[in-house]
Amino acid sequence: MSTIANIIKLNPMDDVAIATLALPAGSLLEGTDGVRTATEIPGGHKVALRTIQRGDPVHKYGQIIGFATQDIAPGQHVHIQNLSMGHDFARDYAFGKGVKPSPEPAEHLTFKGYLRPDGRGATRNLIGIVSTVNCSATTVKKIAEHFVRSDILEHYPNVDGVIPVTHGFGCCIDSKGEGLQQLRRTIGGYVVHPNFAAVLVIGLGCEANQMDAIFMAENVNPGTRLIPLVMQEEGGTQKTVDAGIAAIEKILPEINTITREALPLSHLVLALQCGGSDGYSGITANPALGHAVDLLVAQGGSAILTETPEIYGAEHLLTRRAARRDIGEKLVNIIHGWEQYAEREHGSIDNNPTPGNKKGGLTTILEKSLGAVAKSGSTALQGVYHYAEPIDARGLLFMDAPGYDPMGATGQIACGANLLAFTTGRGSCFGSRVAPTIKIATNTTMYNRMQDDMDINCGSILDGHSSVTDMGEEIFHFIIRMASGEHSKSEALNVGNEEMVPWMIGAQM
Hints:
Layout: E1 2-4, E2 7-9, E3 16-19, E4 46-48, E5 57-60, E6 63-68, E7 77-78, E8 83-84, E9 110-115, E10 121-122, E11 126-131, H1 137-149, E12 161-165, H2 178-191, E13 196-203, H3 211-218, E14 226-230, H4 231-234, H5 237-256, E15 261-264, E16 269-274, H6 285-298, E17 302-305, H7 315-319, H8 325-344, H9 355-359, H10 365-372, E18 381-385, E19 396-399, H11 405-415, E20 419-424, E21 437-441, H12 444-449, E22 456-457, H13 459-462, H14 468-483, H15 489-492
Parallel strand pairs: 11-12, 11-13, 13-14, 16-17, 16-20, 17-19, 18-19, 20-21, 21-22
Antiparallel strand pairs: 1-2, 2-3, 3-4, 4-7, 5-6, 6-8, 9-10, 9-15
Helix pairs in contact: 1-5, 2-3, 2-11, 6-14
């Protein structure tokens, strides 16, 4: 990447550069041979550096981001009016050819976490209340609200909260179908999540998503820390609320005896997300987070990349880093499945960039994906998983999911992620109570406007005050502090009680 005052050129072979700030018409593009802007170029948007003929591929990051739909002259704004994803093109998957060993860290670091009886490390000591079906969601929330309104938790300083986990599904679906199996896998992942020291599971009683099946799928049994309540058996809403409150009050003293201790960073599993992306995402926050991922993996930790449609067109960068050929091939097969899905539904994967993405300078899904993949750093891809499938490897991992941020994050948490890092350019307000969430801004303007939600400003890279490496190290050390109990901005705002959104598949009847 070379910053040339008012533009950034990411790769020598690029046909476009990115405006570091809004450029009026007639502005000289510094570092070029006299190229001037033909029109105003908004900050974060692309400007042509050379003549591009209609039908020619357009390169950014040294990769194809689309094809010109008309002739483009040097200095013209390159965006939706003259660039589209166009036709498919061959990608060299080069399975495993780009794998490089993770460097040995200078010192092995620790965080202050909770060690669970099964050997997993936790970043929070929570009590969860989980609904099997939407019919029990209000009851779950009423129980949790009791502990928010009262001062009882002040007497239990080692308990980080009593939180609800609700969703909008759980019934009128094939009781033996793939959709219900996936929902059970997702809910089950929350039930056994390491950040929960104890869990109440609350069902209505007659739903398709029976809690016994969830317990069987997770190979767990009810006990003092896994308490089932069925509303139809308890006598209805209020009696279940009362029973839930009593159960939690009874177990609070035991949960409060659990204290933090020094644990190696190998216990950390970081979910990677980006939302409300803009033209700066792939230049500042995403590569900085990627450097933090490299540092975490070097310490034995793990990171989960997801949102399959948002790696489309960049998957060949991941297959080159596949630790084994079958890992890369599994990723490609998932990509082909999404192509077939889009065709079957008469849609296009290129429908993914939102109006906000486009206003921020992103034109095609290819461009968005190339920036999104930067979150994964540079280490080897060690595993590819289905949605909410428990992870059984360490290092950089990938989980299949749609591009809808809460849906992807829900699956990552169900996989076992105990932290979440979220980059944003437009200003996403996502948070998760189960896995504490660090919010990383791509630009200073948005960071200043939304400081109550943002933890770190990677706009300092664009401003010339920091490097990608500097910001990656800052993110890495914030992750360690957050894992050790420091609250993120979203936690301080109590954001994250409504953000569980399972990916439901199959016919709803």
